Amino acid sequence: MDPVLKIFIYATAGAVILQMFILLSLTISLHKTSAKVEVLAREVHGRILPILSSAESILNDSRGKIGIVMANLVATTGTLKTQMDRLDATVNDIVDRTRLQVIRADDIVTRTLDRVEETSELVEHTVVSPVRQISGIMQGLSVGISAFFGQNRRRRRRANPRVTQDEELFI
Length: 171
Prior knowledge:
Helices cover 95% and strands 0% of the residues. The chain is an all-alpha fold. The model has no long low-confidence stretch (mean pLDDT 86). The termini are far apart. The chain has helices spanning 3-159, 165-169. The protein has one domain (3-137).
C-alpha cells in the first residue's frame, strides 16, 4: 500500500473518531439540556395552569358584570341622547320666544315714540301756539301802554321841568 493512501486512511479514521466524540458530547449535552427543559416546562406548567384557571374564573365572573356595565352604558347613552334632544328643543323654544318678545318690545317702543311725537306736536299746536299768540298780544299791550304812559310823561316833563334825569330812566 501506498504510504500516502495510509496517511489518508489514518486521517479519515481520526476524523471519524473525532466526529464520533463530538457527536457523543453533543448527545450528552442535548440530553442534559432536554432534562433541564423538561424540568423548566413542568415548573412553568405548574405555575401557568393555576394562573390560567384563575384568569378563566375571573373572566367568567366578570362576564355578567361586564354585560351589566354595557347595558347600563347603553341605557345611559339613550337617556343622555333623549335629554339632549329635550334640551335642544327647550333652548330653541326659548330663543324663539325671546326673539318674539324682542320684536314685541321693539313694536311697543316704536309705538310709544310715535305717540310721544304726536303728543309733542299736539301740545305745540294746542298750548305753545296760543301761548305765543297771548305773548304777542301781551307784548303789544305792553308796548301800547308804555307808549301811552310815555307820552303822558313827556307832556308832564314839558309842563314840569323838575323831572330829573333819574326819573326818566325809571320805568
